[in-house]
């Protein structure tokens, strides 16, 4: 199975994103955290920044919306040309309608589950999504500790994906490091967001290679 490593620019230098992007040529996608200071108690940037990132990035953008009212705001992020747009389950009045709109615009549609959000209501909806983001920390801040208590959700998702014969990516985000990535891969994750453990190092290319190898060593052949 393919392993994807998506460095999160939350851990990069906010006044030097263009240069920071050149440090991760071996990444699969760039993870872009949009926070509105309402859905999460932190603020990053919005649509104008994502539009510029889309223009300068050679890697596809994996936009993670930590904002309220995804029904209203998510389509605009897809219109930037972002490869994928992921919104939180609680942030949309009609998650399926949002996902369908994102796909219509041409983006992959993702739904994100906070550590306390149950996975069960979404298992039957998997065909509506291209990606499920299982948060392995409370969203809002980088540099937190990986929560292995959410691994059963990945196992449920993996089983449901297999039963339905779907190609939904299972993404994890938060506290992903050389030490923790294998636990998430073992549970079923194939797409790994890593902030501090990539941009917080002197050699992001080496960090990505280390993470990829550690994930591959724990990835089941299915
Ligand atoms: O979505 C996020 C926080 O809400 C970040 O992408 C995530 O926490 C990455 O940071 P780190 O790898 O340093 O934990």
From TrEMBL:
Its EC number is 5.1.3.1. Substrate binds at residues 8, 64, 140-143, 173-175, 195-196. The keyword Isomerase applies. InterPro entries: Aldolase_TIM, Ribul_P_3_epim, Ribul_P_3_epim-like, RibuloseP-bd_barrel. It catalyses: D-ribulose 5-phosphate = D-xylulose 5-phosphate. HAMAP family: RPE. NCBIfam families: PRK05581.1-4, rpe. This is Ribulose-phosphate 3-epimerase. It comes from Diaminobutyricimonas aerilata.
